[in-house]
Amino acid sequence: MKNVLILPYGGREVSVKLSGGFIREVKPRFGRILDSGEVREAIVDGVRSYLSSKVKPGVKVAIAVPDSTRPTPSGLIASTVIRELEGLGVRSDDITVLIATGMHSPEDRNSILRILGEEVVNRVRVVNNNPYDDSTLAELGSTSLGTTIQVNKLFAEADVKIIAGTIGPCMLTGWSGGGKTVMPGVSSRRSIHENHKLFVRNVRNARRGAMFGLIEGNFVRQDIDDYAQRVGVDLIINVIQDHKGNVLGVYVGDVVKTFYRAQAFARDVLSSSEPVEGEADIAIVSPGVFSHEVSLYQSGSRMLAAVEGLVKSGGSIILVSSCYKGIYEGAEVEGFKNFFVKYEDVEEVLDLTERDVIPSFESCIGYQFLWMTRNFDVCVVSSNLSSSDLKIFRMKHYLSVDDALSDALKIHGKDSAIIAIPYASITYAVKK
Q1: 36-270 maps to which CATH number?
Q2: In this predicted model, what pLDDT tens digit does every residue of 234-283 receive, in sequence order?
Q3: Could you give the residue range(s) of every CATH 3.90.226.30 domain in the chain?
Q4: How confident is the model at residue 117, as a pLDDT?
Q5: By CB distance 3.0 to 4.6 Å, which of 11, 43, 155, 287 could disulfide with 292?
Q6: Angstrom distance (rounded) from CA 175 to CA 166
Q7: What does the pLDDT look like over 33-76, one tens digit per residue?
Q8: Is residue 143 packed enough to be buried (19+ CB in 10 Å), middle (13-18) or exposed (0-12)?
Q9: Residue 265 is inside which H or E element, if any?
Q10: Cα–Cα distances in Å, from 39 out to 77, 79, 189, 294, 384?
Q11: d(Cα 374, Cα 22) in Å, to the nearest integer?
């Protein structure tokens, strides 16, 4: 039993005093950290192996990288790829880097500099994806599951298409990475809606609130794999990282086959070191990755998904996140908030999503928040949110973890079973 729990919060650490009860702290196994030289070498080898026959002077190259809500070392990846491409005869004027925003707000110049670094920004063209502007999109048919393929025209028309990403547990696709940088990263609002709508089939089949870490039979992931192949992605560069952004593995190659090899490695190093037995009365969870603390939307969806199956029905979940951009970092923040004014019943949300009454990129997170707050007592510890902010979501607000835990112990008793997940957004807890 521990007396003090240390949690990442807002780029620093906070401590929680524990009294009574049982504490089980769940962390990933992690593994050896690769240095930047090893990462660069793997990327160079992959570019040469997969692209040497395709790359020559005059070809147009598009490189899609995640936006600031993802911790991918995009600067290291992009600079390495660009240098290698130039060495193979590609002109810098023929290279475009796309910020794969999906439905998130476009990144400003300062943010793009943080993502890519000055060398890349000053060397090649950098463009935010715009899912709303039809003039910037190309339509390329549809997937086998019926999703319309509308992708950024600069990406669609490139002779060579490269994507970067980070692999970790995901509440929607099971695991992030692979073709996810294309769908939703550089796709249209319509395509994202049609793809994300498949979550309804997922949760109804699995009878769950989210699909965190579940990839078998995941229709959203299946559709993304098909989508990326039909778009014609030539190369993926996927990394697996720890909570501090250190690279534990790098995989370069085919958009589907390489992804699944990388996902198997990610599952190994990000799984809990020991199986988790039983269900706790109280869970204390932090994203553990600073970029995942950007908002309640991002950190809440990740943390709520991470504890599904680990907490008793009616138990308390204490979310510890700075939420430094507030409720939602995306362009449709009012729509996200209004969702919880309009809807209370999870089955109604699923029905209306199937009938295209509710956009799925709203309802996939909205459903999860509704499902969790109707099954658990959810508390949020954040200095950037207020009780009025959280009232709409039926969540309680606290400024300290100690106060939140004290109130939870009053509900469940001083000998309550407690589970703590300090790096919840990248921890796949294996159930015994």
Answers
A1: 3.40.50.11440
A2: 999 999 999 999 999 999 999 999 999 999 999 999 999 889 988 999 99
A3: 4-28+273-426
A4: 95
A5: 287
A6: 10
A7: 999 999 999 999 999 999 999 999 999 999 999 998 888 999 99
A8: buried
A9: helix 257-270
A10: 8, 12, 34, 27, 36
A11: 25
Predicted confidence band of residue 331 (pLDDT cuts 50, 70, 90): low
Structure-token pair, residue 231: 């778009």
DSSP label at residue 35: P
Q: Are strands 4-9 and 12-17 parallel, antiparallel or unpaired?
A: antiparallel
Residue 298 burial class via C-beta count within 10 angstroms: exposed 0-12, middle 13-18, buried 19 and up: buried
- At residue 188, the pLDDT reads 97
The neighbour count for residue 35, using CB atoms within 10 Å, is: 10
Residue 17 CA to residue 1 CA, distance in Å, equals 12
Reported in sequence order, the residue ranges of 192-293 that DSSP labels E, i.e. its strands, are: 235-241, 247-253, 280-285
Q: Global pTM?
A: 0.92
Return the H-helix or E-strand segment holding 60.
none
- Radius of gyration of the chain measured on its C-alpha atoms: 21
DSSP track, 275-328: -B-S-EEEEEE---SGGGGS-HHHHHHHHHHHTTTTEEEEEEEEEE---TT-S-
Cα distance between residue 44 and residue 55, in whole Å: 13
CATH superfamily of 4-28+273-426: LarA, C-terminal domain (3.90.226.30)
Find the mean pLDDT for residues 168-196.
96
Which of these, 170, 163, 160, 184, lies nearest to 74 by C-alpha position?
Answer: 163
Rounded distance between C-alpha atoms, residue 93 and residue 61, angstroms: 10
**Where does CATH 3.40.50.11440 sit in the chain?**
36-270
Question: Does residue 184 have a cis peptide bond before it, meaning omega lies within 30 degrees of 0?
Answer: yes
What is the residue whose two structure tokens read 């086959």?
A: 257
